[in-house]
Design a protein that fits this description.
alpha+beta; eight-stranded antiparallel β-barrel; Lipocalin
């Protein structure tokens, strides 16, 4: 029993440290490099997509000149977005480096890949 409790405590500690690092990495302003629908082969980026993730777990976004704000959280490889007044949804983070952020998303059953680059 004590071993199980210790193992569970260590796992929770490790996951919280890992998520803490991800929050630091994702914080900042990101601009669209490409947004492809794998089925249609189209790019929806058009240089009009921007996200700003803040350390206080709030975000601002602009997509096609439409602004949005809300809260976000990271659990494992999923980024949960909770826009103000709308339902929460999740995207998979497939890459997060100092200059590149890639999301895997589902749009009506079609796979979409959104690649963002850190703004200067």
């Amino acid at each position: 029993m004590k071993k199980g409790l210790l193992l569970a405590s260590l796992l929770i500690f490790f996951l919280s440290c890992n998520n803490s690092k991800m929050y630091e990495q994702i914080a900042g302003v990101w601009e669209c490099d490409s947004w492809t629908n794998e089925t249609m082969g189209t790019d929806k980026c058009n240089n009009n997509v921007q996200f700003e993730f803040k350390l206080d777990k709030t975000y601002n976004s602009t997509i096609a000149k439409v602004g949005d704000t809300g809260m976000y959280k990271i659990q494992g490889e999923l980024l949960y977005i909770s826009p103000n007044g709308k339902m929460e949804f999740a995207v998979k983070i497939t890459k997060l480096t100092s200059d590149t952020l890639v999301f895997l998303m589902n749009q009506a059953g079609n796979e979409e890949i959104l690649t963002l680059l850190r703004a200067n």
